User: Fold this.
Amino acid sequence: MPSGASAEPHLLAEVRRGEIVEGVIRGHVVLVDEQGNLARGLGNPGLVSTLRSASKPFQAASFVESGTLESLGLGTDSIAIACASHQGEPGHVAAAERVLAAAGLSESSLRCGIHLPSNAAAAAELLRSGAKPTQLHNNCSGKHAAMVATCVHQGWPQDSYLEREHPLQMEIARRLAKYAHLDPEVMPYGIDGCGLPTFGLTLQEFAGALVRASRSDPAIQRCQAAMAEHPWLIGGTTSFDTALISSAGTTLLSKGGAAAIFGAVARDGSWALVIKLESGAAVGLPQIALRALQQTGGLAESLPDPLSKLFHEPVTNWAGRVVGEIRPVFQI
Assistant:
């Protein structure tokens, strides 16, 4: 096990109010090489975590590989929204709706559920207009739209597309298992917030899957190219993934997920980085991820805006006064 790695979560950041440490953030950081071997790490690389939205390119790959995209006359923006955890801004909603319309479907075909846009401004505007949120505002609506469109193209059942035994979900499981070097029949899984299966892998297995797929899977590579081409669609105006991909998408791609999991992979498949925060809360994750990428060579020490602003994002009070900071304190 590399220096610094242990079975216990590692101290990654401190939350400071003035010079007082009022909270700490612990977790796990795993860096693998091009073969998926553990290169450097902190905490437990064998920790099993659900992948949540960090695995979205794997879930979107069938949309590309099946020929659904071309058959519907859709472009790379449709691949990007299929890989997205978007913030429900109007452009995100429109992108997901285009996929459905091209397949002759509507919002009622989705099974992801309804929530307000996660972008505060978009949510406020929607409420001011008197409109109600729909499933298209769900941060996973692009993925679901691509899935039901793929079912139409493949002649698969649409109503049951969420089920683990559905042909599409079986195909996703096989792809993920192939690159994680696992048996798809025994991979543990739970149900994500949007209703789809979310698989449980060790952090090293997930990092290995990211790096191997990036090197050898044409559908995943097309997903990555679309993410780099349309970074705003991947998250939105205040999204960390959007900021990171906008600045560094020619060399790396990232995708975070709920419960504080984050994956980044080199476009050339030379490394992958996975981070999991022990609390399951994403507070401090951008600062920790940026510091880890700097220390492992994924990013330069001098960060461009807006990444520099994210790295030094202060803790403020209700009056907007700077009262503290989240400070990464680890060395890989």
In short: The mean pLDDT is 97. The first helix runs from residue 56 to 65. The radius of gyration is 19 Å. Residues 10-328 form a domain with the Beta-lactamase fold (CATH 3.40.710).
